[in-house]
Amino acid sequence: MKRSYLGFIALAVLGLLAPYTGAYPIFLMKALCFALFACAFNLLLGFTGLLSFGHAAFFGSAGYVLGHSMKVWGWSPEAGLLIATAASGVLGVLIGGLAIRRQGIYFAMITLALAQMIYFFCIQAPFTGAEDGLQGVPRGVLFGVFDLSDDMSMYYLVLAIFLLGFMLIDRTVHSPFGQVLKAIRENEARALSLGYEVDRYKLLAFVLSAALSGLAGATKTLVLGFETLTDVNWPLSGEVVLMTLIGGIGTLFGPVVGAFLIITLQNELADKVGSWVQVILGAIFVLCVLAFRRGIVGELSARFGSRKNA
Amino acid sequence: MEIFGVPHQALLGQLLLGLVNGSFYAMLSLGLAVIFGLLNIINFAHGAMYMMGAYAAWMLLEYFQIGYWWSLLLAPLSVGAFGILIERVLMKWIYRLDHLYGLLLTFGLSLILEGIYRDQFGVSGQPYQVPELLRGATDLGFMRLPNYRAWVVLVSLIVCLGTWYVIERTRLGANLRAGTENPQLVQAFGVNVPLMVTLTFAFGVGLAGLAGVLAAPLYQINPLMGSNLIITVFAVVVIGGMGSILGSIVTGIGLGLIEGLTKVFWSEASSTVVFVIMAIVLLVRPAGLFGREK
Q1: CB spacing of A108 vs B103 below 8 angstroms
Q2: How many other CB atoms are there within 10 angstroms of residue B186's CB atom?
Q3: Percent helix, strand and coil across chain B, each rounded to 5?
Q4: Fewest Cβ atoms nearer than 10 Å: which of A87, A161, A192, B162?
Q5: What's CA A260's distance to the chain center, in Å?
Q6: What pTM was computed for the model?
Q7: Burial class (CB within 10 angstroms; exposed 0-12, middle 13-18, buried 19+) of B125
Q8: Which residue on chain B is closest to A287 by alpha carbon?
Q9: Number of continuous H segments (helices) and E segments (strands) in chain B
Q10: What is the tens place of the pLDDT at every residue in A161-173?
Q11: What is the ipTM of this complex?
């Protein structure tokens, strides 16, 4: 418990200082959003043992909800974030409720297929702007006080959202509820026979993960001011798996490391190697699965920290 | 003549298109099911293999002037050979791990393959001519039947039923089914299980390659043609369940027909109808129409 507390403070300090190191605020904000996304995803994969292959649906549709509510309805950013998060949560109830009816590999296929359905919906829906995307979403004024068009104000809001989400996941994992989730991950049949209503726990974890993914996606749209179909499409669902895998499945800090790594990689390589970015990501994927399944943080804590808390 | 206010020519035309799509669903989901049965891996790269089959036909024609008929044989063989390589180099390391790693590995693989093809051929589609023998259409009296589409349906039916026959009715198939149940025991009886696993994988992806060649003259050949299809095929697999070979075939073709019908009556919903059916099946019969819960 104490260690993750220290780690959290280190993360917060790093976050507060990061803009003064000369890193682009936009890049940092984008990476923080993906870090929260990966952490939320890891809550499901790492701590409940459910591999969702459709998390882009939550990330992307929350982006559309925020964009629409702020641009068309003229809502404030706090209201936009709230409704977008809630919408992803509701979507999580629907998709999660169906997907938990099957286990293992089928669970992954079902989430992928349902997310693809959301993608097709977004192509045709009148409010998403289809191929052009939703452009020109205003950042607005937070609580009527903080003007978010200033990059630094925006950055600190993103950081606050990220830390809040991270803390929530940390608390969840270390709560009695989180212990039951781990029990389900380790041995579902036994958890069931001990009298836990496994499906209910799984669904709640799924909805929590979906809502937080939505919060991450909505925040990203707020930062960048647009939303496109890329954010609801399956390659992004794969990317978040990769971020978590390379950082360390089932570790608290792994997904953060993984997200920063992948986003940096994409930023650095995009204009240099073109479509080879995808090949490189795929190769990292294959290598991680074959030889590096614990991920960076998992590997580090296995080597140096036998004190790893349960 | 009209049926529910739709001219029957249009209705039959869409049904035929649905049947063609359904044939592809059947061939791909059959391959997935056979591979899953023995390897316990859901091959995400199946879509990429289908795409490779189509490109193999295109490349054979473009670089070697080898036409459709030889491609029909050579392209699946080359995709199958590539499958052997993949199985021997990558897959064999992960059989003992959780099934999910198989999905992740093949997902990474399909990213690599698609990226390479995109770099080589760009994202715009390549056309491929219908072979001369199968051009034109036959007048059946009540509708004009495009020859090539009829050919695709015919070939896929023959291949699917042939596969069913081999697996369910022959000695080889008996070994295969036994290997699905208990590989150690089959090995102990003197069957070379690792070889069987390799060849099964090669056969499964070879089927995908064959589907790719059949699809080449119908659709534009492009690097993403497989991944868009494979997700729908996943839904087909969830609906049918992977327990039964005949079930995969029936489900694939049936869903293709339903998709075709939806296109006639409510075209906006045609891209999502398979997923909606999947949701309903999960609510009513979670194990799938022909599946058994393991």
Answers
A1: yes
A2: 20
A3: 75, 5, 20
A4: B162
A5: 12
A6: 0.90
A7: middle
A8: B105
A9: 11, 4
A10: 999 999 999 999 9
A11: 0.88
How many residues are given for chain A?
310
Q: What does the domain layout of chain B look like in residue ranges? A: 28-229
Mean pLDDT of A116-138: 84
For residue B279, list chain A residues with Cβ-Cβ distance below 8 A. 98, 114
- pLDDT tens, B89-119? 998 888 888 888 999 999 999 999 999 999 8
Q: Tokens at residue A289, please?
A: 């699965």
Using an 8 Å Cβ cutoff, are A242 and A281 in contact? yes
| Spatial distance between the Cα atoms of B226 and B49, rounded to a whole number of angstroms | 8
Cα distances (Å, whole numbers) of residue B27 to B20, B153, B162: 11, 11, 11
- Could you tell me the two tokens for A265? 């990689």
Residues with pLDDT less than 50, chain B: 294
For chain A, the domains span 2-233
| List of chain B residues whose C-beta atoms are within 8 Å of the C-beta of residue A283 | 108, 112
Whether A309 shows a pLDDT value over 50: the answer reads: no
Find residues 91-130 of chain A whose CB sits inside 8 Å of chain B. Answer: 98, 101-102, 104-106, 108-110, 112-114, 116-117, 120-121, 123-124
Residue B155's H or E segment, with its range, is helix B147-169
In this structure, the number of other CB atoms found within 10 A of the CB of residue B72 comes to: 17
Nearest to A115 by CA among A131, A101, A99, A135: A99
